[in-house]
Specification:
Bound molecules: phosphoenolpyruvate, manganese (II) ion
Order of helices and strands: HEHEHEHEHEHEHHEH
Strand order of the largest sheet: 1-2-3-4-5-6-7
Radius of gyration: 17 Å
Structural class: alpha/beta
Largest sheet: 7 strands, parallel
Distance between the termini: 42 Å
Number of strands: 7
Strand content: 5-15%
Number of helices: 9
Amino acid sequence: SQVALTIDHLVKNGVRIMRGGVFKPRSSPYSFRGLGVDGLKMWYEQARKAGIKIISEVMQVSQIDEMLPYVDVFQVGARNTQNFNLLDELGKVDKAVMIKRGISGTIEELLYSAEYIFSGGNEKIILCERGIRTYERASRNTLDINAIPILKEKSHLPVVADPSHGIGMREFVEPIALAAVMAGADGIIYETHQKPEEAASDGQQTLDFDESTRLISRMRKAYDLVTAF
Ligand code: PEP
Ligand code: MN
């Protein structure tokens, strides 16, 4: 299956965490909206066997309990960064939460959103820069490299970057990922698929496994370089 092939690819490359959406926020209601909790359970079992942790997006409060046993990290997507009810409830769970910056959100707003989770009692928070909406139309979003060191300095939380949504073009995911590593990102999330042209979502920004393997090895080199300075 698609999941098994991807897990295999990650294991071969020493990657220990996998992200996938079973509840997908889509700009158009006619786009693929995910497999739901049944998909999550199947995926979880396969990932566990391979020793891989999983991260998946929770879109609303009612999904927290049903997802809880089958995720290691909850993702809050860019459209929910200021869903304060959801953030309050995630403040009460004993699982890490990765919160994405809002589509037109400021750095300060992202930090306040993290405070909602923190003040509920959950300190396991990861911040994600995924690109913001600017006047630029040549790329899907504008990944704000500036946000990476600023968020790290202001929060001391782990900061990850999402070059796939940040630029939205497969051929440029690698340079933007490497730039984020050099800027101090603690992690990179990107989209990969055995056959990106057949992906149910976001194929235009998705790497095939050869591109993904190359990216992982280059990111390791970039990380070694930046930590040796
Ligand atoms: C996603 O992570 O696949 C996603 C929908 O991202 P965002 O919320 O950043 O648009
Ligand atoms: Mn996506």
